[in-house]
Write a structure and sequence with these properties.
56% helix; 2 helices; mainly alpha; single chain; 4 strands; 2 domains
Length: 154
């Protein structure tokens, strides 16, 4: 027996309970007139069972197909979203690399001279630093020159 046939039997049992409650017996050519005969009997029972089984099979199979199609669509959408997320992560990584390159270039094109007046190696009166080469980036052209750094300490 199939799962649908078991379901059909359950439905017929409930329907027979209702017929019993209202003392209704469905006529059938197979009836013998015995008191123990069910409210739905013989060919009538078999035909109803087959009809209910067919309906369940048709409706539930159709519903299962729809669910499978929906699941396939959802999986396709999820795959698309995962690809999209991967592309975003790759772009964010590329931006981070580019920002690091720009930051690195900026550091190469600039300098900081740190002077610590507390350091014992420095004279606390006046410090002169020899000329140093420097590069200043003004947009695209790079200009070269010399600068003299002079620090006054009090």
């Amino acid at each position: 027996m199939t799962e649908f046939e078991y379901m059909a039997i359950d439905i017929l049992d409930r329907f027979e309970d209702l017929l019993e409650k209202y003392d209704i017996t469905i006529p059938d050519g197979d009836r013998q007139g015995d008191e123990g005969e069910a409210r739905i009997y013989g060919m009538t029972y078999g035909e109803l069972m087959q009809d209910i089984t067919d309906i369940l099979d048709e409706k539930l199979t159709k519903k299962m197909r729809m669910l499978e199609e929906t699941q396939a669509e959802q999986e396709k959408e999820a795959k698309s979203l995962r690809q999209w997320a991967t592309e975003i992560q790759e772009r964010e990584q590329a931006v981070a690399v580019k920002e690091e390159e720009l930051s690195s270039n900026k550091k190469e094109n600039s300098f900081d001279y740190l002077f610590d007046p507390i350091n014992e190696n420095h004279d606390k009166k006046r410090q002169s630093v020899p000329e140093i080469d420097f590069h200043v980036n003004f947009g695209n052209p790079i200009r070269e020159g010399k600068i003299l750094l002079d620090f006054n300490c009090k």
